[in-house]
Fold this protein.
Amino acid sequence: MRLTRRDFLKAVGGLGAAMLTSPFLSKVAQAIEQEKKNFPVIWIQGQTDAGCSESILNTVSPTVVDIVTDIISLRFHQTVMASSGHQCINVLHEALKSDEKFILVVEGAVPVKDDGLYCTIGEDEQGKPITFLKWVKDLGEKALYVVALGTCATWGGIPAAEPNPTDAKPVTAIIDPKKVVNLPGCPARPHHLVGLLAHLKLFGMPELDSKRRPMVFFSRLIHDNCEMRPFFEKGDFAKHFSEKKCMYLLGCKGPITYNDCPNYQWNSGVNWPIRGGSPCIGCASENFIGSKGNGVYMRLPEAKVPGIAGLKVKADKFGFAVGAATIGGIIAHAIGRAATAKKKSNEKKESQGE
Amino acid sequence: MGKKVVIDPITRIEGHYSVEIEIEGGKIKDAWTRGDMFRGWEIILEGRDPQDAINVTQRICGVCPVGHAMASAKALDSAFYVNPPDNGRIIRNLMAAGNLLHSHILHFYHLVALDFVDITAILDYKGNDATMNNIKEWVKKEVSTGRSTAAAPFLPRYKGDYIKDKELNLTAISHYVKAFEMARTAQEMIAIWGGKMPHVTGIVPGGVAETVTAEKIASYLYRLRRIKEFIDTCYLPDVIAVAKAYPAWFKIGGGYKNLLAYGIFELNNEGTETYHIPGAFINGKLNELNQKNIKEEVFYSKYSSPTGLHPFDGETTPDPKKPNAYSWVKAPRYDSQPMEVGPLARMVITHLSGKRPEVTKLVKDTLKALNADENILFSVLGRHACRALELKIVAEQAEQWVLQLQPDKPTNNPYEVPQSSEGYGLTEAQRGALGHWIKIKDHKIERYQCVVPSTWNCGPRDDKGRRGVIEEALIGTPIADPENPIEAVRVVRSFDPCLACAIHVIVPHSNEVKTFRVV
């Protein structure tokens, strides 16, 4: 029996209840096994720390071996492939010459300053290093789909953080965004990539939001499903790390970060940052680390909320990341509820849990 | 005569890195290593909230984020004048142990094994294991396609002297599969305390954010015991089996034999005593560690900033077109010496210190079983052996540490970000000595420098032209076939480099410099 798009979305839609990755991915995996041909995947790494690759290795069901033998044909991945040197670079050259369709996975940001000299992979016939920028352009043009894996590939991430020393760019700035799917997160999550590859293979492009993220994984804010939400509603906020309440005053970025951490947790469900006693640091958000002023533990600024009367407003520095109304609404809501929240007292001290 | 062979990149390591080698008489005569990627972390950190450093520096490396979080947290602890409470110290140790378990297992099975193990032996598999049979059928089907990338990513590969013993190959392949589960389990052990992994959110100045419960202790402990069993029944026996199949590799890849370790696994909250002993082993003599002796030289590195600076004063101004420079890696020196860091350094220094009898016993018993002295540790196989021995020791210690945790006691101490201050944090990442240095001004980071393990091991020549550590270790390595320089990559991978490599093989200074490509 072939898994239909409807079945798939149904399985994915039930994620709110599912704590672990296994149930729905197993179902997808079964369906995929029936599709005999493994989809060729070329996975290249630029300004990355390989954290996304490490993260994907944590996949439970399907396992890494299942993925490699049943779902995709992993032609190129520097961290796992047996071959080295020109033997492995030839895989890329052949992919460029061949008519075979493939999915390109790009992990890491793309430095473009000085013609991309800040990251090179392999050499050309003259012994000149080939820039990562060129690989992304050439392979990206040829690829059927491109997966921008992780926050660096999606937004530029920390390499592109102010002052962006190497002029690092996201994948969508280098190649036609229409074939790109963004999977932000630092790191990207195993079920996001496996789920996306499965979808691309079985049904083609999934439904994306305006930032080209799959709706199934990124349609909700962390804040929407957070297990500490009841504390937020009561205005009961943690004042220091380890206090298992709403982390807003400690600089939680849950209100501006789209991801499914509250539903899935992390690492087979053993924990997730907010349950672990620390705020969400917004690792999947557009301005993660980003501009200098954007501190990890800095409280989200209060913002103007159009259409909501009677609320105190403050300058919104985060407006470019998500709609001002969204954050504004949330923050205003928090402030309104938080009888104990000292508005704009010593912000630094509060952010340190003092 | 006159061959230039280029291997670019070396795979199955982390990052972007390359090596250039001169061959004479079938052996490597000279070598140049270079890092091929620059991001500018230290520049990005300047002007930010010092507290951000723990989360930002973890993203230097997705394989050893806990190491960076630890170094950074310790640098902040010292700059903020705060120490963790018992629980905080122990949990940091438990996370570091988890990262060590994850990384060493991943390194041996998923990064190194394919240099020795013959994956095609799976075609002879006759057992009942479903996963093994699945792989067998897959390889069979793939090979029948005749595609150049058939059975990718396991093929193609260099031609070479792979293991011939069928049973040993099959055992190693089944452990390769099992090791994924073990590595994942180790990541879970870290996430239990750190919130998530890679990249924990739970290491904070003054301790950790997570609280202690009996459920968490048990959850960690039983995962640890599963991995411990794997170390004793799979990892150690496999390393020994590979060692017995390749005795010559105890004599290859020795290098400078200078070792540096900062120590890790704090035994007191001030961090003055660690389980692994710090020290500098130079010219056969063990010295006490003094971080003031560390300088970074950049004559051959792609930076226009001054050379010979201590990390407190370190500068990082990139210049990709700097003449003579061939690497993005700096050349750190200790007391002007190039130093090897990593499990070999940790085990030898801890053993020689005489302070940890169980380490000394394990090293001596192993050497006795191999009928050899300490000298064989300075080799490709010596590094793999030290990694395995270290894991056994650390797993045993962590089992004791986790039971020292006390539910309901605090896991972090309060702190304030001072107006101005400085501090440093020395620890060990999986791949060796890791240091972070911070200067704070106006509550912001004025200067931040990291000297990471792979800077020590993978750095280029220093200002005096002395080779880097891997460059030196490559010297004398036999290369049977320059078109398939598997020997060179075995040496490089024994260091578990944290960059992606390229190797250039040059036969020196002949009139004819013919270039051909390795395919």
Summary: The radius of gyration of chain A is 21 Å. Chain A touches chain B through 94 residues (CB under 8 Å). Strands of chain A lie at 39-45, 72-77, 103-107, 110-111, 120-123, 129-131, 145-149, 168-169, 180-183. The mean pLDDT of chain A is 82.
